[in-house]
Amino acid sequence: MDMSFSLVRLCLGLPTEEGATTWGYALSGQTGMDTASVHNLLQQMVAEGWVEIRTETRAEKLQTENASRPPRRLVLLTPEGHRQVARVLRLARYDSRFSALFSNAAAR
């Protein structure tokens, strides 16, 4: 994938802990990106093998505060995704085009 401001923002928002999941709406809120952009990038990441997307199970949904909502589509980094996200962030950290993203991330 080409390095872009949106890609770096999304990579900063993805959970990097092994087995950790998130979902598009949460990523949108965390990164400040609109949901359409988040979902478009996630679909590109699926095509590249960076993430897997699965539907939240009933048991997972029942553990949340609002079990009546529709199931979430959960995003999980693959082993390749862990490598690629680390590479993107490593390269972006030293690229002046993305410096504002890293100073904002440090402030959180």
Structural domain count:
1
CATH superfamily: Winged helix-like DNA-binding domain superfamily/Winged helix DNA-binding domain
Q: What summary fits the major beta sheet?
A: 3 strands, antiparallel
Number of strands: 3
CATH architecture: Orthogonal Bundle
Question: On the 0-100 scale, what is the average pLDDT?
Answer: 91
Low-confidence stretches: none
What is the helical fraction, as a range of percent? Answer: 55-70%
Name the overall outline. globular
Class per helix and strand makeup:
alpha+beta
CATH topology: Arc Repressor Mutant, subunit A
- Measured between the Cα atoms of the first and last residue, the distance is 27 Å
Give the neighbour order of strands across the main sheet: 1-3-2
Which CATH class?
Mainly Alpha
H/E element order: HEHHEHEHH
Proportion of beta-strand residues: 5-15%
User: Compute the gyration radius: what is it?
Assistant: 14 Å
Descriptive keywords:
alpha+beta; 3-stranded antiparallel sheet; 6 helices; 3 strands; 56% helix
Describe what this molecule looks like in 3D.
By secondary structure, the protein is an alpha+beta fold. The chain has one domain: Arc Repressor Mutant, subunit A (Orthogonal Bundle). It contains 6 helices and 3 strands. It has helices at residues 5-13, 24-31, 35-48, 58-62, 79-93, 99-107, and strands at residues 21-23, 51-55, 73-77. A 3-stranded antiparallel sheet has the order 1-3-2. The protein starts with a helix and ends with a helix. The mean pLDDT is 91.
